[in-house]
Design goal:
Elements (H helix, E strand, L loop, with lengths): L2 E5 L2 E4 L4 E8 L7 E7 L6 E6 L6 E3 L7 E6 L4 E6 L8 E8 L5 H5 L7 E2 L3 E6 L1
Length: 128
């Protein structure tokens, strides 16, 4: 049984930082492309950042480019999203997702292809 679990969300003031983490079980982590998505109330889900199985290819939404950094440690089965210079508009539920079809990261983040496995999400709230 595959499980995807996010952690690290919380309440932070504008301009602050948070690091989200994601771990998986039931799959071979370094066989899987991974991604971070977010959804705010009343808004569509947005692909924030996606990363290839090796970490060699990444994609960022324009809204987070230069502020967020995605990384993975395949030896530890961990995916990270370092979020700096946070803004109130970054407030959302953040989800981690995994897929082993090995497509370019932008195709997942753009919604062209869907990840197979999703976590339950971790809430990020940025106060002004």
């Amino acid at each position: 049984q595959v499980q995807v679990v996010e952690s690290g969300g919380g309440l932070v003031q504008a301009g602050g930082s948070l690091r989200l983490s994601c771990t998986t079980s039931g799959l071979t982590f370094d066989d899987y492309d991974m991604g971070w998505f977010r959804q705010a109330p009343g808004k569509e889900r947005e692909g924030v950042s996606c990363i290839s199985w090796s970490g060699g290819s990444t994609y960022y939404a324009d809204s987070v480019k230069g502020r967020f950094t995605v990384s993975r440690d395949n030896a530890k089965n961990m995916l990270y999203l370092q979020m700096n210079s946070l803004k109130p508009e970054d407030t959302a539920m953040y989800y981690c997702a995994a897929d082993r079809n090995l497509r370019p990261p932008y195709t997942y983040c753009s919604g062209q292809y869907e990840y197979n496995y999703w976590g339950q999400g971790t809430q990020v709230t940025v106060s002004s």
